[in-house]
Write a structure and sequence with these properties.
InterPro entries: 2Fe-2S-bd, 2Fe-2S-bd_dom_sf, 2Fe-2S_ferredoxin-like_sf, 2Fe-2S_ferredoxin-type, 2Fe2S_fd_BS, Aldehyde_Oxdr_Iron-Sulfur, Beta-grasp_dom_sf. This is (2Fe-2S)-binding protein. One of its GO terms (molecular function) is metal ion binding. Keywords: 2Fe-2S, Iron, Iron-sulfur, Metal-binding, Oxidoreductase. With 154 residues, the chain is an alpha+beta fold. Strand 3 and strand 4 form a beta hairpin. The protein folds into two domains: 77 residues, Ubiquitin-like (UB roll); 66 residues, [2Fe-2S]-binding domain (DNA polymerase, domain 1, Orthogonal Bundle). Bound molecules: FE2/S2 (inorganic) cluster.
Length: 154
Amino acid sequence: MTLSIHLTVNGAAQDVALDDPRVTLLDLLRERLHLTGTKKGCDRGQCGACTVLVDGRRVNSCLTLAASLEGAEVLTIEGVARGDELHPVQAAFIANDGFQCGYCTPGQIMSAIGLISEGRLDGDPERVREGMSGNLCRCGAYAGITNAVLEAEA
Ligand code: FES
């Protein structure tokens, strides 16, 4: 049975036919919509590389069924810049060396955007670390990531 869903991805309406109701949002983004900025790390909700915003809230797209997203608004790393102008969180990651290899960076940035929008960091590095704890960085760029989030939040 084919299931049709209608959602918005980075501001563009998408009508998607799903032959398999088990398709995740991560696979929908990467394999069907060719939005490969969202990364697959563990594929089991442990690393945060696949973080995107759904209706403004952070989700692990590897744990989110595409079939559950009828009418949802999805924002991925491809949708955060405005033309040539980086999102302030992107700029802060560059200014603070908030990455090394860069694989986790799209998920880190999406998580940071969601976290900042929650409005409860108050410039506190410990709150940033706790709020970003679902996003792992194997290079260990955590100091730069924390500083980037603090700068972007200020
Ligand atoms: Fe989704 Fe690791 S790929 S949390």
